[in-house]
Specification:
By secondary structure, the chain is an alpha/beta fold. The protein contains 2 helices and 7 strands. The protein has helices at 15-26, 69-81, and strands at 7-12, 37-41, 47-52, 62-66, 86-87, 106-110, 116-120. Pfam families: Glyoxalase (PF00903).
């Protein structure tokens, strides 16, 4: 078997709130709670297990999700409908915009715990680079 990423634990101020938030934006389901975890599974089988942690112990992380053009449209509509601050860049300098990096579209936003979330339609490095001198 080749190495595969299976799951990660995402610390949150409220595990249910953060799991519901991400699942809603991405059009995913919140899985059944088990122990201290509230899981959200992606299509490729990777699970984000949200766990409540004291606010002062949460280390902010970045999570990027590769989506189809249609999924991007739906997620972006939900972001705007909910009035969620969003940005074209990870430094949060281009509010209310999306980017067109790597020949696709992308947007950054924060989850309720302050983690940086990103949705993209093209994987980084997947676009064709122009020939030198073109």
């Amino acid at each position: 078997m080749s190495v595969q990423f299976n799951h990660t634990i995402v610390h949150a101020k409220d595990n249910r709130e953060s799991a519901r938030f991400l699942a809603h934006i991405l059009g995913l389901e919140v899985g059944p709670e088990w122990g201290p975890f509230v899981p959200v599974a992606t299509a490729n089988g990777v699970t984000l297990d949200f766990a409540t942690a004291p606010a002062e112990s949460i280390v902010l992380q970045h999570y990027a999700f590769l989506v189809s053009e249609e999924e991007f449209d739906a997620a972006y509509d939900r972001i705007r409908a909910a009035g969620i601050d969003h940005y074209a860049d990870p430094h949060l300098k281009q509010p209310g915009e999306i980017n067109h990096n790597h020949g696709g579209r992308g947007v950054y936003f924060m989850d309720p715990a302050g983690h940086g979330m990103e949705i993209i339609t093209r994987a980084y490095g997947s676009h064709e680079r122009p020939e030198a001198g073109s």
